[in-house]
Amino acid sequence: MLWPDCLNRLKLDIKESNVASWLLPLHAKEEEGTLYLLAPNEIVCGIVNENYHKIIQKHIHDITGDLEHKVTILVGTQVEQKASSLQKAGTKKISETIYQPNIDSNSMKKRTFINYLNKKMSFGNYVEGKSNQLALAASWHVADNIDNDYNPLYIYGGVGLGKTHLMHAIGNQLRLQDPEASVIYLHSEAFVNDMISALRTNSMDKFKEHYRSVDALLIDDIQFFVNKERSQEEFFHTFNILLELNKHIVLTSDTLPRDVKGLTDRLRSRISKGLSVELQPPDLETRVAILRKKSEEAGLHLSNDVAFFIGQRFNTNIRELEGALVKLIATVKLTKTSNITMDVVKHALQDQLISLNSKISIDLIKKAVADFFNIRIADLDSKSRKRALVRPRQLAMVLCKELTQSSLPEIGRNLGNRDHATVIHGNKKMTKLIKEEKNMEEAYRIIKRSLTN
């Protein structure tokens, strides 16, 4: 058979997911030197014509050895119309079977809902810590399908903190519990592009049906919807219908719904009725736990000194931390190094360490702290022992120790020419206050985020 032979060749050239999504739904029929490929709808037809027609035609020529053998890709109804016009012109009627795609509705549903989930991102390899406990618990709650009172679930936080990982974990868990569940994960930009394509091809009904018949819709980075009124309107209606059907909706962004500028009031209000959970930058213990887990998966052993050194330096987000570990693993394997010493680590990561050091300086930290507490930078350097100045000064010491590679004496010199013992004392006292006092913990978190995002 011509089409099965062609498909076997196409599988060598095209990603498996794309073959399953766009080529397997096609029904083939040969008539008078032409291979008709029947798409189930206009969306599939348009995508195949635009992206795969040429390569299909090439393989058909190679298989048949006939450069005149044509490939025509049409929607079923279009072929029916074509058959009718040919019959009127006195041409032999194309067999009626060619405009009846041999695909049942259930199999089409499975093929239509490409979930785009990354199976490597699961709850099993997500490291729990104080910074992500609430978000992780809420995500498990949604994925376990206990009930749907957290709908939508809105996860927010800075870059590289694990928002996308949690979304994939939710989707994968839902699919694990029900392999037939129609789950779609996509970036908000992809939703917008799909809608634009549907408008261009006059297939908005298909677009609406596609997104409004899922069991779970996971949209990443909704801030991309900002100022795109038509996209927001369409998403709002999709959002409402899915909520009415008690389907899962999970959204992510870099900030709270109320702070996403450019969202329509009704969409912001609708989103805010769900549960919003924050992902914060991971603390040192969580960063070290992530390093240990990832290094063990790679068959690498990190000593305590090495793990804590990397964890202390790469402290802004998980993506940056994992990037450093990937660089270290590659260096160790390529150089066949057996003993991962501190010198090996510093040499392997020297470019990243230099970059980190150049990004955040003591002066930058002092300015951020002074701005937050509405004091002068000179106040941080002063000898004043007023509580209103001592606490910001000690917080600056903590941030300098965490975010720069400066030594304790160097930090002291840049904060009013204080000695390293004063810096140690200030760090110890402020670290305790951050754990015990909510206002100091909030100040620490906000200032650190402003410096690292």
In short:
Helices cover 59% and strands 9% of the residues. The protein has 23 helices and 8 strands.
Q: Topology, please?
A:
Elements: H1 2-13, H2 16-23, E1 27-31, E2 34-39, H3 42-51, H4 53-64, E3 70-75, H5 76-88, H6 105-112, H7 133-143, E4 153-157, H8 163-177, E5 183-187, H9 188-200, H10 204-212, E6 216-220, H11 229-244, E7 248-253, H12 265-272, E8 275-279, H13 284-297, H14 304-313, H15 318-335, H16 342-348, H17 350-359, H18 362-373, H19 377-381, H20 387-403, H21 408-413, H22 420-436, H23 438-452
Parallel strand pairs: 2-3, 4-7, 4-8, 5-6, 6-7
Antiparallel strand pairs: 1-2
Q: What is the beta-strand fraction?
A: 5-15%
User: Unreliable segments (pLDDT under 50, ≥5 consecutive)?
Assistant: 77-112
Whole-Å distance between the termini? 57 Å
- Count of extended strands: 8
Strand order of the largest sheet: 5-6-7-4-8
What oligomeric assembly is this protein in? single chain
Q: Helicity level, as a percent range?
A: 55-70%
Rounded to an integer in angstroms, the radius of gyration calculated over CA atoms is: 29 Å
Query: What's the story with the biggest beta sheet?
Result: 5 strands, parallel
Q: What's the overall geometry?
A: elongated
Mean pLDDT: 82
**By helix and strand content, what is the structural category?**
alpha/beta
Number of H- or I-type helical stretches:
23
